[in-house]
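Input for the complex:
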Amino acid sequence: MQVIKLFNSKKNPAPAPAPAELEAVEFSADSAPALPELREVETNQDIEAARTETLVYQARNGDLTAFNELVTCYEQRVYNLSCRLLGDKDAAADATQDTFWQAYKALNQYRGGSFKSWLLRIASNQCYDQMRAKARRPAASLDALLEEAEETGGSILGQMEDSGADPQDHAMRREMLREVSEALQQLPYEQRLVVVLSDVQGLSYEEISEVTNASLGTVKSRLNRGRLKLRESLQKNRELFDGKFRL
Amino acid sequence: MNEVRELSQSGENSHENTWLLQISLYIDKRLEAPALVRLEQHLSGCSECRQQLAGLRQTVQLLNELPQPKMPRSFTLTSAQARALRPRPLYHMAQAAAAIAAIFLAISLILDYSGAFASKVAPVSQAVVATPAEELPLVGTRPPTTPCPTNGLACAQSGLGGEVTSPAPPTPAPTIAPIVTATSDNLVSIRLAQILLTGLVLVLAAFAFSLRPRAPSRR
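Predicted:
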């Protein structure tokens, strides 16, 4: 019997089979215990995609529990994207909430494909709206965002502390991450979106192209220009980046 | 001197344009074999690009290491929120009814302005001009006191100028009058229908607007 963990893969799920095929996929997974590891991963992705499609199908027919299961699967990812795009946790929370409300209203317009890309496209649009509204109210500080993030215990900073890393290194690293967060906010929105999707969310070029509705060439170009601007922005604080942290 | 500086800058830009995008793709392992070999050969001889590569790599690494922010709350929907977000069937019905009424109104206005409703009126107005004045009742002029010396039309024309001195004698009911009355009645009823349709569109649109799905209050 295979152990199947859903919704934990960073890779793009394979094209989703129809909900009716779910049972067949599960049956083949159960009936072939000696599959190679690669095959097992592919099967898990298929099942993950099929499971998502099933939940979408059920949610579309009014099943709120199914929709909330989808929310639970993707809310951290959407909130993370919103935080990095907006640099303000209150606006990010609002954008995340609006994303799921909009997704619930627009479920009938979902035409298959990657549900994650569809959802992230809604999120990026909501963030853009929030960004325009954000100018009218004060933003929560990025420091607060970073400090709160450290409390989650899953961050690289937490890991460094646990592994007994040099406190000076830790402080410097922490400062650098704060600088990166701030420098991200200085990027034009289109470049920031592509950089966050690629280097924070781990999406492939193809997925980013799907989310942003831009060509692959545009995605590559925006990503390159965004990274270069980030690097230049970080270089301005050169005194922070001595020794091994110099960019 | 300026030319030299411009040439130097354009040379740097050309160098950046040529290699920086490739370096970004190289970091993401998205460079195909021939371009990959060319870039690696270039990197072995260009310290500037090697620095760019190292800097960009570290930037990407820092972005990868950005901590995941803690969610302030769960974003699952309550049943009340779900009800508020999904439109009621009555909303769709009101929308459809308003749209149908609006289409009828648009059609009637188009026909009205294109002259389809006025086609019966035009000959009548010509007939009024061509009809001898003795067959037409004078409206809005003083009652005749003396008979008209020439004909009714001349009297009517002079009456338009405000000097009716010798209007035509009273005549029997003209044959054209019922047509004028009928077309006037038609126009009145068309106008009335248009006003009613406009009102209906507004009422239905307002009703649909009041039933629209609204964003529930945030938790």
